[in-house]
Amino acid sequence: MYYLGSKVKLIPFLRSSMEVVVGESLKSSHFCDLFAGSGAVTEVFKESVASIVANDQEVYSYILLQNILRQKPLDGLEEACESLFTCKKSEGIIFNYYARGGGCGRNYFSDENAQKIDALRQVIEQYKEHEATYICLLASLLYSAHKVSNTASIYGAFLKELKALAKEPLVFEPRIYPMVQIPCHVFCEDANVLIERIEGDILYLDPPYNHRQYGANYHLLNTIARYDGFTPKGKTGVRAYKSSRYCKA
Ligand SMILES: C[S@@+](CC[C@H](N)C(=O)[O-])C[C@H]1O[C@@H](n2cnc3c(N)ncnc32)[C@H](O)[C@@H]1O
Prior knowledge:
Layout: H1 11-22, E1 30-33, H2 40-45, E2 51-55, H3 59-68, H4 77-86, H5 93-98, H6 111-125, H7 131-147, H8 164-167, E3 184-187, H9 191-194, E4 202-204, H10 214-217, H11 219-226
Helix pairs in contact: 3-7, 6-7
The protein binds S-adenosylmethionine.
S-adenosylmethionine is lined by residues 3, 5-7, 35-38, 40-41, 55-58, 61, 190-192, 206-208, 214, 244, 246.
């Protein structure tokens, strides 16, 4: 997923820098990624460390992180996917508030894709009691919806006309990671508060580095994740979000 401030391209540098400092003991280190975002760094380091703490204050990120650090089997996944692959479109929050056809004037998704997202999200809710499966399905929907969003990359604004990718039909692609065998803890908190309660050997801190608030720029991912009652505000339909004190120019 394209993500503001993603460190995907810096992974080799991060790994070699950490190895220079901790050497062989990387394997026995407790790793903490407290501004984990897309989870790109957590995803790589979970293979090389003894335990991991991943945190981000945004809910969509919490879902992605829990899926990347899955520790339970995916009960009922096959059956869930069958119903998701065949579910009919439906008009819900995403269509009504974020697609032209809903009459709100916003154009974040094509009408068809917005209705597909609503349908998928409603079916996914039926799997809530199978926690790992539910998280996996929800994370998969976030990635799949993000691929066909009608934005320049973030949700701070939508494009007037549908771009080519946004015209493509949404394809629901399950994002399945192998079960992680090391101890993992995932949080959705302010890192400044969480830091008081955790311990580790390697503290990886990648806070925001400009004024752009993640809650505002990824509000639609939070809305798909939460799928709750709220009042969208203004031209972009942003929902109330947590401001980060790290977001400064
Ligand atoms: C530069 S991005 C991290 C990118 C991440 N390393 C990656 O590769 O995807 C910064 C992240 O910090 C999160 N954030 C901002 N303020 C925070 C806070 N006070 N506590 C926890 N997370 C916060 C944002 O939601 C965002 O995901």
